[in-house]
Structures
1.
Amino acid sequence: MEREEIFQYVKEQYGTEPEYLWKKDPDSAVLRHKNGKWYAIIMAVEKKTLGLEEDGKINILDVKCDPDLVGMIIQTYGFLPGYHMNKRHWITILLDDSVSEAKTLDFLDMSYDLIDSGK
């Protein structure tokens, strides 16, 4: 799934616009819930930083996840512990088509709902 497709989805679903907060990383975007809390981050990171063997950068999506599911989910290819986030509550989804669009959007919706409920 492409970044632009995610941005289009969250705009239609939640009225969210990406926020670009970091001058040193101008392509990284935060998606903020209407309550002000982050529910997703999209960024490009070096593959080796994530423990992947290839060189180059990859787009990733960090989303909040039910802590009871994290251990199981990160056993599946395309999912990793949350990059630069609390690894008990956040997961990283590789945006390289290894995770289906439907599954990516399901996790994005879960993250939005978890932020909404304050869990």
2.
Amino acid sequence: MAKKSKKAKKKLPLAYKPIGFALGWTGGTVAGMAFQKTWKVIRKEDNAPDALDRDRGWGEILLAAAIQGAIFAVVRSAVDRAGAKAIERSTGTWPVPDNGGRD
């Protein structure tokens, strides 16, 4: 019985990969929408600056990049954690070996 459990634990990270990909894609979409709404609240503009916008200054571009990075990191962590906890609840096994993660 213990041998079967070890085999199932080894297969789980592989089975989790497509789920993790789908969660990551969904999280990225949600994070993008959250950033656009956040930027609109902060600067009262519909479009956030891009690094190649000629008419935007360094400060504005770097502020937008920092806010966008923070939002993406928080959403990614929240989605990854929620997905892993859901897998653990349904299977009794953490989806990645050695308590390690994506990074």
